[in-house]
Amino acid sequence: MAVAQREQRVRAVTDRDAIASFLRTDRLYAAYALGDLDGPQRRRTTWGMAYDSSGAPIALAEHHEGLVPQPLFLMGDPAGCRNLLESVIRPRDAYFQVTDEHQAAISGLYELDPPTEMLRMVVDRDTFVPFAGPADRLVPADIDELNRLYQLGFRTGFPMSVVSDGIYFGVRVRGRLVSAAGTHVLNPREGMGVVGNVMTHVDYRGHDFAKMVTSAVTAELLRRLPDVALNVHADNEPAIAAYTRLGYRVHCRIVETLGRRRSGGWGIMRPIREAIRLTWQRNPG
What we know:
By secondary structure, this protein is α+β, with helices and mostly antiparallel strands. Helices cover 29% and strands 33% of the residues. The model is unreliable at 1-5 (pLDDT under 50).
């Protein structure tokens, strides 16, 4: 797909209000980025914006700093996003979180791995349908149990702060934590929360435990905030059906893909890239 070029100006930005104003033009698509504005990752992110000939912002890029491929979020005009990646935000490698249009726009700059298709699903107080069950609020002292559960799936080694700073609920069977869900994003200032880290032990699936813990986290978020979002793999029909039962609806489709800059070799990073890709794909939330 050809990307139309037009007269634009691009620059790095640090003005929180200017960034937030642009993100709010599609706050549900920008849910994670809104969380980064005021969350613990804010010091590890860099931002760039593109402007049209009149000075109006038309595109935004956000990149997390780090040694291995880090998330890179794009929003707005595809040509503007490409211009940002050409001159302002220039990581050698990144884990892109974009739309189909953005993927086409950046393919000339980056060699992209096969994409993972995700659905951004959202819910609010008007559409939420609670699902009752014995889900209890987890506390920081539960972190070892939580990590033992997650070691069976997509992530390991969460610090205690993910529970103390977020909202986590779990279901226990005979005293054993067998299912849990929590938050990726909790930003009261922007009225946005993101549910994630939904995991049920393989021996206890089929009992609606994931639905119970997701419902409990969602209910607590909606008690504080107007909007809640989550990501789910586009081909995960059981999870999509469960979230729909809770009142979630599809807002948009998101493409996640690892990319390496075409201008340089990256062979030494390939094993790390593969490990990062597998880690992201194992995370259903």
